[in-house]
């Protein structure tokens, strides 16, 4: 098996798109297709199911993927060892989520862009279960999680910080204290299901009464809906800090009965290349410094 074919296969498997893989690898799409077919021919097995405009890994592709990643990682380590390269280099596929990408990770991404240009970051927006599954399958190198639990089957985890939550609404004459029973009588706003803070909030409210949320998909849309007086929303405090400071939103006096922690995870037993270890170390430092 040629290394370049495995690199192309791994990229297609990561993004599940021949077109996107070709763009990221700077190949013509026909070259990506022909390389995958050449690899399939050499192995005597189909690696992708073609489902119209979509693709997915076959069982053979799922089995090959972790080996392909290991071979690519070893190749990058060998090249660095032979050339004596001092600067870290390599591709790093990172699972993340909107609240972290937009509000926690810019300093980390800026650091790598300026100080470690040989490390190519590929950020993949996913949530919870999807991120964990991608890590176990080897589709992602590392993944950020914001969860109540800090132990996840098949994964190693570095806890980066406790993530405070804030219940927010448009400024107004709110009571000096609120209990969960008070909240179920308010219009409720939320991002999509799958965000741990939304799911835990919903579970807490449903312990009192059946509730329904108006879903806005993104944090930015949810904040604007709350500021417009459409209801209340529970969001990570870091995502509403600016609005609380300028008075666009008001934090309501309710303390969530659960605690979320921002975490960085990777597959158990995975030997982390130097550039991945560097990313973990810098993530620990920068996120913890933010408090």
Can you walk through the features of this model?
This protein is α/β, with parallel strands linked by helices and 291 residues long. It has 12 helices and 12 strands. The protein has helices at 3-15, 18-25, 29-43, 59-83, 98-103, 106-115, 128-137, 180-183, 196-206, 219-227, 237-246, 274-290; strands at residues 48-51, 54-57, 90-96, 119-125, 142-147, 155-163, 165-169, 188-190, 213-215, 232-236, 250-251, 260-267. A hairpin with a 2-residue loop joins strand 1 and strand 2. Helix 1 crosses helix 3 (29-43) and helix 2 crosses helix 3. It is elongated.
Keywords:
291 residues; Arc Repressor Mutant, subunit A; 2 domains; five-stranded mixed beta sheet; elongated; LysR_HTH_N; WH_DNA-bd_sf; transcription cis-regulatory region binding; LysR_subst-bd
Q: Can you give me a brief rundown of this structure?
A:
By secondary structure, the protein is an alpha/beta fold. The chain has twelve helices and twelve strands.
Secondary structure elements and pairings:
Blueprint: H1 3-15, H2 18-25, H3 29-43, E1 48-51, E2 54-57, H4 59-83, E3 90-96, H5 98-103, H6 106-115, E4 119-125, H7 128-137, E5 142-147, E6 155-163, E7 165-169, H8 180-183, E8 188-190, H9 196-206, E9 213-215, H10 219-227, E10 232-236, H11 237-246, E11 250-251, E12 260-267, H12 274-290
Parallel strand pairs: 3-4, 3-5, 8-9, 8-10
Antiparallel strand pairs: 1-2, 5-12, 6-12, 7-10, 7-11
Helix pairs in contact: 1-2, 1-3, 1-4, 2-3
